[in-house]
Amino acid sequence: MKITVVGLGAVGGLLAARLALAGHQVSALARGRTLQAVRERGVGLRMGGQVQHAALQASDDPAAFGPQDLMLIALKGQALPGLAGTLAPLIGPHTLIVPAMNGVPWWFLQTPALQARFTAAQRQLDSVDPSGDTGRVLPLSQVLGCVVHLTCSQPEPGVVQHGFGDRLIFGEPAGGVSERVNRVASVFAEAGFKAEASHDIRREIWFKLWGNMTMNPVSALTGATADRILDDPLVRGFMLRAMAEAAAVGAQIGCPIEQSGEERLAVARQLGAFKTSMLQDSEANRALEIDAIVTAVHEIGARLGMATPNIDTVLGLVRLMARTRGLYPASV
């Protein structure tokens, strides 16, 4: 399969390396030191005590590769709106577009089931697609939803370190399992991932978001690992209240949560003293992925007329912290 990975950070690098090593024709959009490193040495993959190098084409120009069978978008949410307009050369009439990204994707309210609940203007989420360019350039008919359940890091440009987990979930935005979903899942399964097809990918997206919507910003605000956050009863209580608000919002948009907040935090506790992706970005002085993970939940709740005081609080605090440090756009 002819595949381009857009963004060679930790997740993008891991996906690109394993797909290339599985024999696919993989290219990648990258920039700066990462682009230079991949052109010289390929992507270095540290996994299971071994180091492998995957050769692939790399460029900072989407026109270098032409239309693809599959385009994987592995960017931070805040990077996509500015880049979406440049991706058209990669998209042919049969290209499948798979955003392997955290949080709420741009298409989340665009599904037929929500047309009666929201106006056309309300279905465009300003938090993740402020200009509407992403939705215009990336046709919904060619999009598959994806949820990534794994951890990895990028210790240096062009090198990725796998942590734990290798589960990927794929599904149709409108729901149901299709031949193309099964085909994409098979490609990733053959590359060594635990890939599966979901009948309701929106619900899978919201479930993951429900779990990391609080842990991520709280870790960035405090600098604490997950175990220390969960050991503080006041912080834990605050997180549970915010999770209850997000669960209530999800129930109104067809994404009910069956697990309790305590059950979800018990799962996080089993992972030990890990650093969330937002904490890693904060420590590295990289832009924080606030909008897709927190702002979008606040925005959907507001459009439903629902009060979300705890979500609003964590959003206001983490956004102000990030703006103070230059890790989030200044207020207009």
How would you describe this structure to a colleague?
There is one protein chain. With 332 residues, this protein is α/β, with parallel strands linked by helices. It has two domains: 2-199, Rossmann fold; 203-324, N-(1-d-carboxylethyl)-l-norvaline Dehydrogenase, domain 2 (Orthogonal Bundle). The chain is 42% helix and 16% strand. The protein contains 13 helices and twelve strands. The strands form three sheets. A five-stranded parallel β-sheet has the order 5-2-1-6-7. It has a four-stranded mixed β-sheet with strand order 4-3-10-9. A hairpin with a 2-residue loop joins strand 9 and strand 10 (159-162). Helix 7 crosses helix 13 (309-324) and helix 12 runs antiparallel to helix 13 (309-324). The longest helix is centred in the middle third of the chain and has 22 residues, at 201-222. It is globular and about 50 Å long. The chain starts with a strand and ends in an 8-residue tail after the last helix.
